[in-house]
Amino acid sequence: MEIFSKDHKLFRLIHHNYNLLPVLNRFGIKLGVKEKTVENLCLEKNINPNFFLAIVNTFNNEEYFPQEELLSFSPLEIIEYLKRTHRYYLNYVIPKLDSQLEELIQSRTSENQGLQMVSQFYRTYKEELEEHIDYEEKTVFPYIEKMVTNNKSEGNYSIISFEKEHTNIDEKLNDLKSLIIKYLSPDYNENLCNEFLITLFRFEKDIYDHARIEDVILLNQAKRIEKNIR
User: Is the same domain home to 44 and 125?
Assistant: First the structure.
């Protein structure tokens, strides 16, 4: 799998892997990139090109994960990227899945207990994901931001508390996919079902990369900062 550099033209990244489009959007990059290189566009948008490439290459290549380089970036920079990813999930992916699932359910011509199980499992997953994001946005991220900016921790909270409670929400997406693939009764619109399943596959890949950055990078950074100031 290709590793992109500052000299690559941005349109090449998109042609190479169109799944990078939502990642580019998180950096405020929209289409109409002309012949600009990664470095040109990052300078124009006031983006750290090294951070941009680390994220893009991690998303593009499952085997690529520059842990030491990612650990060297500011936690504030990483948090801002994670927040934009959360907004993408809540404002686009989840509503899209909601709509696709509703269309799929409406396409059935019988009770289809398999679809009922899928719907129930999905609703539970959605609630857990929203609670997880809400906790990060209101508790974890502000705690880390205050440690970075004030060089001190406040209250009795510790990042270890979050680490212990941090669930692997990406694993539950795999369970949902398996439920659809293995147990649906053949009473549904196959095109609608395929669209829903493809969206789940893409979402699972995005969640996996998101969780790696949270768990391996941001939490380790937070633990180091916490240790140094206590």
Answer: no
Half-sphere exposure of 44 (CA within 13 A, CB side): 11
- Compute the average pLDDT of residues 153-164: 69
Residues 40/187, Cβ–Cβ less than 8 Å: no
d(CA 140, CA 25): 24
* Residue from 72, 38, 65, 62 nearest 52 by CA: 38
Closest CA to 83 of 95, 91, 72, 94: 91
pLDDT at 96: 98
pLDDT grade for 164, boundaries at 50, 70 and 90: low
**Domain limits at 24?**
10-64
pLDDT in tens, 42-56: 999 999 999 999 999
What is the distance between the alpha carbons of residues 85 and 174, in angstroms, rounded to a whole number?
20
Position 199 in a domain:
yes
pLDDT of residue 167: 62
200, 177 contact by CB (below 8 A): yes
Q: Which residues pair with 34 in a beta bridge?
A: none
Q: Record the tokens describing residue 52, joined without a space.
A: 């941009």
Tell me, yes or no, whether 33 and 96 share the same domain. Answer: no
pTM confidence score: 0.91
Same domain as 209, residue 123:
yes
